[in-house]
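Dear H.,

Thanks for agreeing to be a second pair of eyes. The structure we're designing against is below in token form, covering all 714 positions.
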């Protein structure tokens, strides 16, 4: 009896010691897994915080650079110096262009007194034109010569936005106004909605968030005085700024939100008092902890079962031999369990080092091969995009099978295993498709095992293993316990790869932004040079316009002073460009009705392309011509045509004198000369007849012996 009691005491002491060792080992193993998951979570938090901050800062820097560019544009300053329609149109042009390119809510120009004089939303019902923004900090900062940056809720638009402002300076460097750009940042919230984050000020007022119901609320409770002060500033609207958390969160600590545990992180931004707060779920850590606890509990249960069996076997003297055998079996099982934990820990640690899915597959196959005695292995991963199972790693695969797959779900044994989500076991596959190649030839495996890799009943891949010997129960247990670890590592690695890809994209965008800023600075310097050149050219152009205006006025004065009809014709278009009052009276139309008309068939009877000067190359100098009137009458004129240079173009100067009266007098003179000639002819005939009569009378008197009466003069 004493011997039995002594043996019982030793058994109880051994059982307690064994359970203590197993529990302690499980506790350390659980702590290792938890610490591993915590490190992974912290790395993911840091990467996510960096991605959110870079996206936000890059977009805000782009808006600030645009505000500075508009402020330095030569189209912005003139309207602040003289609000003429032309200058306002120039300012509207550049504000509209930047409004479209930035997809901004509004681009507007404020004078030094704080009144908005023009805006890209000038035609909308919530236009900023006429609004006074002296109460806004971004205006006060810019009007002092700095760059204004401000997150605020619009007092007119009633929408959230980031306001960037830059001063507009004249040639002497005096600040005459401010350019402001408002950009709504909803697109950033949408782009980064895969994270739970908040952009808040030092008081915890949430301005941006991936959680829509949290916007314009507070992260933690506020004192009543602070709440009233924030509402009075009009920065975030009227309130009431209800808190979404029960207390202020601290970076690096766990916090509860909506019934779940999160790791809180805070990232400062370059903007005064503005920070990015990120909440990362701790479910991954809990999953690792639960796995370690479950594994420890499983080992404890095995040990307890073993100890209970030993206790029962020791009490049964009749079955001492069988108890000894079963005790040895349980001891072997216990050793197998300890070895199993060690093997699982070693494989899990090696898979954690893999940086690609292919590397993880190779680690799995190379670690499993010596433990299970496989001679052939293949690792298929389910592609999330096309839904195909693709080989990413192999062990002992012949050359002709290097390109095995891909398989659709349900296609072949690999696809069938993925569809059924349960292991497939094929024994003695004589002359099957899988062969083990070695230096002396080829062998066929005794057993082929296909095992799905599952995560929450979701297929991640399929592992195909073949052995020249049937798989033992211990080997199957190893594979069964290894599959959840493999699935977990695949999920973590995929998430890390996606995070790394997003980080690289963010870095590329940051580099591109830096290059764009350099180009913008160079472009701004180039625009300054062009501005000076354009100003000089503008001054020269104004002088030329003034000289041309004076020359034109002198020409018109001379033209109006000429006492003959004068018309100026553009030879290129054959149109009348100017006419003096005398010519207008002769044509019978007002000056404005004549200018712009074509000369042929209007004041000249010649056909188109039959002009004596333009087409026939004739010279007209005091030549008799005909002038057509508005009523269709023809006025005889004495015309002279000469080329003249007005400005930098050559015109034809036609001058003509109405010779209607001269023509009438010539006709009358001609008629009178003809009458005189007829009268003269009649007179001569009569004289000749008188002379002949006198000669006859004298001859008759002579025959009568009388003296001749008439003396004939020859």
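And this is the sequence the design step returned. I haven't edited it by hand at all.
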């Amino acid at each position: 009896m004493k011997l039995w009691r002594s043996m019982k005491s030793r058994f109880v002491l051994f059982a307690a010691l064994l359970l203590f060792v197993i529990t302690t080992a499980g506790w350390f193993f659980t702590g290792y897994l938890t610490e591993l998951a915590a490190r992974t979570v912290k790395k993911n938090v840091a990467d996510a915080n960096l991605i959110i901050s870079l996206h936000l800062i890059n977009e805000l820097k782009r808006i600030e650079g645009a505000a500075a560019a508009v402020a330095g544009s030569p189209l912005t300053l003139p309207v602040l110096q003289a609000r003429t329609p032309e200058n306002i149109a120039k300012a509207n042009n550049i504000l509209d262009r930047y409004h479209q390119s930035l997809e901004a809510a509004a681009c507007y120009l404020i004078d030094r007194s704080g009144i908005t004089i023009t805006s890209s939303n000038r035609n909308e019902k919530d236009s900023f034109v006429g609004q006074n923004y002296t109460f806004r900090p971004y205006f006060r900062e810019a009007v002092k010569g700095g760059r204004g940056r401000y997150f605020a809720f619009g007092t007119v638009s009633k929408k959230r936005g980031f306001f960037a402002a830059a001063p507009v300076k004249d040639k002497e460097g005096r600040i005459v106004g401010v350019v402001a750009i408002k950009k709504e940042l909803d697109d950033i919230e949408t782009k980064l909605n895969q994270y739970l984050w908040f952009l808040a000020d030092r008081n915890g007022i949430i301005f941006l968030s991936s959680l829509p119901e949290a916007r314009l609320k507070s992260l933690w409770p506020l004192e009543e005085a602070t709440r009233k002060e924030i509402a009075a500033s009009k920065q975030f609207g009227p309130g009431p700024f209800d808190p979404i958390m029960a207390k202020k969160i601290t970076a690096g600590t766990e916090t509860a939100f909506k019934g779940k545990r999160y790791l809180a992180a805070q990232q400062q931004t370059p903007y005064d008092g503005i920070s990015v707060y990120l909440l990362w779920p701790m479910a991954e850590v809990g999953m690792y902890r639960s796995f370690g606890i479950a594994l420890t509990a499983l080992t404890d249960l095995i040990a307890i079962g073993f100890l209970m069996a030993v206790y029962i076997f020791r009490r049964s003297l009749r079955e001492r031999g069988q108890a000894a055998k079963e005790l040895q079996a349980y001891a072997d099982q216990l050793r197998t369990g300890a070895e199993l934990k060690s093997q699982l820990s070693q494989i899990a640690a090696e898979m954690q080092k893999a940086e690609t899915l292919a590397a993880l597959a190779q680690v799995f196959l190379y670690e499993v091969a010596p433990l299970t005695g496989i001679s052939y292995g293949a690792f298929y991963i389910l592609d999330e995009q096309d839904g195909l199972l693709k080989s990413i790693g192999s062990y002992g695969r012949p050359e002709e099978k290097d390109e095995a797959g891909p398989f659709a779900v349900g296609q072949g044994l690999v696809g069938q295993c993925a569809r059924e989500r349960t292991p497939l076991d094929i024994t003695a596959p004589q002359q099957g498709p899988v062969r083990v190649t070695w230096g002396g030839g080829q062998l066929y495996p005794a057993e082929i095992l296909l095992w799905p890799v599952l995560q929450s009943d979701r297929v991640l891949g399929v592992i195909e293993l073949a052995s020249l010997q049937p798989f033992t129960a211990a080997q199957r247990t190893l594979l069964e316990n290894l599959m959840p670890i493999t699935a977990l590592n695949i999920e973590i690695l995929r998430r890390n790869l996606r995070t790394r890809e997003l980080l690289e994209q963010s870095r590329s965008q940051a580099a591109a932004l830096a290059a764009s800023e350099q180009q913008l600075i160079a472009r701004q310097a180039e625009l300054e040079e062009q501005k000076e050149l354009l100003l000089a050219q503008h001054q020269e152009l104004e002088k030329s316009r003034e000289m041309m205006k004076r020359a034109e006025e002198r020409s018109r004065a001379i033209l109006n002073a000429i006492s003959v009809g004068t018309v100026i014709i553009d030879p290129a278009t054959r149109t009348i460009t100017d006419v003096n009052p005398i010519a207008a009276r002769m044509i019978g139309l007002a000056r404005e009705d004549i200018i712009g008309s074509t000369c042929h068939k209007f004041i000249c009877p010649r056909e188109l392309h039959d002009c004596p000067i333009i087409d026939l190359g004739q010279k007209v100098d005091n030549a008799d011509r005909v002038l057509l009137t508005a009523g269709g009458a023809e006025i005889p004129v004495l015309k002279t045509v000469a080329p003249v240079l007005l400005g930098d173009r050559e015109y034809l100067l036609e001058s003509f004198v109405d010779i209607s009266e001269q023509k009438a007098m010539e006709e009358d003179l001609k008629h009178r000369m003809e009458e005189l000639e007829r009268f003269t002819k009649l007179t001569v005939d009569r004289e000749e007849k008188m002379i002949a009569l006198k000669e006859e009378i004298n001859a008759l008197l002579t025959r009568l012996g009388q003296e001749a009466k008439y003396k004939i003069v020859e």
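Two observations from my side: The longest helix spans residues 473-561. The radius of gyration is 54 Å.

Warmly,
E.
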